[in-house]
Design a protein that fits this description.
The protein is mainly alpha-helical. It has a single domain, classed as CDP-alcohol phosphotransferase transmembrane (TM) domain (Four Helix Bundle (Hemerythrin (Met), subunit A), Up-down Bundle), CATH 1.20.120.1760. It has 8 helices and 4 strands, in the order ββααααβααβαα. A hairpin with a 2-residue loop joins strand 1 and strand 2. It is globular.
Length: 269
């Protein structure tokens, strides 16, 4: 009797298939449990934002980002990676890093803008969904060392830590509402852009590293412990800007290279 098969994903070389019977064997508990914790944290952030408990919403998003970073690493370490886990993680990310930060920033700063405000929040959710969908179909074609476009977790953390930063510095929100609105639109388009961001996947912690790296990490942890609201904002902002700075640097380098080539061609003539 022939085995029944079901199509999962198309690739350049054809269609990858798995046995239908394999779908009935169950799922890996540990990595999917961690993903579920991230999803719960994202949902708790939504509830907290609706109840105007913004700091609780922010810290829930931070915990969601931690869990999101752990589930993939646990799956690879325990060799429990699966197609189900990949899809479940994407759905969790859409809630935790798409819907939750959009509701947070809308409730916190964008309600006075009425239609322009909720459209900005809606656009953010749409761009987060597009970014996750693009990531899923490009996962086998884009080099692992970079992300194509700003990942949704740091984008969500940029909005979340902005709330913490404003509260800690006691900055009057009324003066800076236009900048918050602009930040939402900016991050939304940055997620679906082609700006490259480092994935840090080549940074293997288990390997031997110079002691200076350990000292640097300890220093960063100390600074975060002293002023978590300010340092988390600074770290996330640095990452968001790093892709743009890298893009500008490559553009300038390319232009200089083209100018040098043109000069060499003229001299040869």
């Amino acid at each position: 009797m022939k085995e029944k098969r079901v199509k999962i994903r198309r690739k350049k070389g054809g269609v990858r298939r798995i046995k239908r019977d394999d779908l009935k064997k169950g799922i890996y508990i540990l990595p999917n449990l961690i993903t579920t914790m991230a999803l719960f944290a994202g949902f708790f952030s939504i509830i907290s934002s609706i109840n105007e408990r913004y700091e609780h919403a922010v810290w829930a998003l931070i915990f969601a980002a931690v869990f999101d970073g752990l589930d993939g690493k646990v799956a690879r370490f325990t060799k429990t990676e699966s197609e189900f886990g990949v899809q479940y993680d994407s759905l969790s990310d859409l809630v935790s890093f798409g819907v939750a930060p959009a509701i947070l920033v809308y409730q916190w700063a964008l309600t006075p803008y009425a239609r322009l405000g909720w459209l900005g929040a809606a656009l953010y959710v749409v761009c987060a969904a597009l970014r996750l969908a693009r990531f899923n179909i490009q996962i086998t074609t884009v080099e692992k060392s970079v992300f194509n476009g700003l990942p949704s977790p740091p984008s969500a953390l940029m909005l979340a830590t902005t709330v913490l930063f404003f509260n800690e510095m006691e900055i009057p929100l009324e003066t800076y509402r236009p900048y918050i609105l602009g930040l939402v639109y900016f991050l939304a388009f940055l997620m679906i852009s082609n700006v490259k961001y480092s994935s840090f996947k080549e940074l293997e912690v288990a390997r031997r590293r110079p002691i200076n790296i350990l000292l640097l990490l300890i220093l960063i942890l100390i600074l975060i412990a002293i002023k978590p609201e300010i340092m988390l904002f600074a770290i996330v902002a640095f990452f968001v800007l790093s892709g743009i700075v890298n893009l500008l640097f490559k553009s300038l380098t390319r232009k200089r290279g083209e100018q040098v080539s043109e000069v060499q061609v003229k001299e040869e003539r």
